[in-house]
Amino acid sequence: MARAAGVFLLTAVFTFVHLSPLVLPEGELTFKQWISEHTKIYESVEEYFHRLHVFTENKKIIDLHNAGNHSFTMGLNQFSDMTFEEFRKIYLLTEPQNCSATNGNHVSSPGPYPEFIDWRMKGNFVTPVKNQGHCGSCWTFSTTGCLESVNAIATGKLTPLSEQQLIDCAKDFNNHGCMGGLPSQAFEYIKYNRGLMTEDDYPYKGHDDTCHFKPVLAAAFVKEVVNITSYDEKAMVDAVARLNPVSFAFEVTNDFMHYKEGVYTSSQCKSTADMVNHAVLAVGYGVEEKSRPYWIVKNSWGTTWGIDGYFLIERGKNMCGLAACSSYPLPLV
Ligand SMILES: *[C@@H]1O[C@H](CO)[C@@H](O)[C@H](O)[C@H]1NC(C)=O
Ligand SMILES: *[C@@H]1O[C@H](CO)[C@@H](O)[C@H](O)[C@H]1NC(C)=O
Ligand SMILES: *[C@@H]1O[C@H](CO)[C@@H](O)[C@H](O)[C@H]1NC(C)=O
């Protein structure tokens, strides 16, 4: 009798989990579709139901947001079964970074600047969106993205560069591999190290490893690191308009994890240098019809997130501290 009940229970759980999609409640049907779209695998029935719960809570946040009047929409993405706390620990810089430059060395021109700039359209200057995976290495992608573009603009040749070298080798410059770092400090490393290898020669692993830099394979060089004075967002516009894409950091909060499209603005995030937890690359800017200025930004969470891996964020208000620490390198070619 006891054994029969056990078998029944097991069968019931099994059936429930693998139930045909047609008879599932709507929320779970969406979850099942999402699982197959993102090829997720859960180790146990408990894990499955826990993730279903988190997913359902996230879906509520997304639906509520999208029913309101906002400048951006939210959507499901690869992070939809994670709480923000889990997400933060894996993907974001968890320690406050030393990122502010009280007196930057970028020299602005008097302008005027074009209304719209997108370096992706000006030529073959921006590599495809990459994916940092389960590693707090955003700062390495912001760094390579910027140097790739700076080099391509200077030489006409676009070469993907190594994030893994920065993870493994740039620790003497206040960088901490998968635990975080900053583009300005990574540019300093590349300058003093005399070079960064290509993605092909030093491929991405997405975890901390020992340094395998080979000087003969150095492919990109930094002559000088240019920091933009903290909170001088106009100087960022000047640099992006006249010179090249620019690396910057900002504070990611819960609402950003669900970003889908439109111009991101937030009242949740802070705007000071000590709160930034994610580094990205501004590849352009523009102004919305409703006259809201924005930045066009390359992220490193793959192409399924946001607008094919990119996002727009409000410009001109130091939104989420985005003007706290921006920088770019001068190429040595
Ligand atoms: C939505 O918000 C914008 C600006 O915040 C406002 O101008 C507009 O009237 C709002 N639309 C609706 C339908 O509430
Ligand atoms: C900030 O700088 C100090 C002094 O250089 C260093 O000890 C500390 O590790 C840095 N913090 C981070 C998060 O890099
Ligand atoms: C730019 O920032 C880096 C990292 O914070 C710093 O080491 C460097 O001295 C700064 N460069 C200039 C010219 O201020």
TrEMBL record:
Q: Which PROSITE patterns does the protein's record reference? A: THIOL_PROTEASE_ASN, THIOL_PROTEASE_CYS, THIOL_PROTEASE_HIS
Query: Per the similarity annotation, which family is this?
Result: Belongs to the peptidase C1 family.
Free-text function comment from the UniProt entry: Important for the overall degradation of proteins in lysosomes.
Q: Does the keyword Disulfide bond apply?
A: yes
Question: Where is this chain's protein located in or outside the cell?
Answer: Lysosome
Annotated signal sequence is: 1-25
Q: Which InterPro entries match?
A: Papain-like_cys_pep_sf (IPR038765), Pept_asp_AS (IPR025661), Pept_cys_AS (IPR000169), Pept_his_AS (IPR025660), Peptidase_C1A (IPR013128), Peptidase_C1A_C (IPR000668), Peptidase_C1A_papain-like (IPR039417), Prot_inhib_I29 (IPR013201)
Q: Mind telling me which PANTHER family this protein's record contains?
A: CYSTEINE PROTEASE FAMILY C1-RELATED
Which segments constitute the Cathepsin propeptide inhibitor domain? 31-87
Which domain of life does the protein's organism represent? Answer: Eukaryota
Q: Where is the Peptidase C1A papain C-terminal domain?
A: 113-330
Q: Origin organism of this chain?
A: Sphaeramia orbicularis
This chain's protein is named Pro-cathepsin H
Reactions catalysed: Hydrolysis of proteins, acting as an aminopeptidase (notably, cleaving Arg-|-Xaa bonds) as well as an endopeptidase
GO terms in the biological process aspect are: proteolysis
Molecular function (GO) terms for this protein are: cysteine-type endopeptidase activity
- What keywords tag this UniProt record? Disulfide bond, Glycoprotein, Hydrolase, Lysosome, Protease, Signal, Thiol protease, Zymogen
Predominant location: other
Gene Ontology cellular-component annotations = lysosome
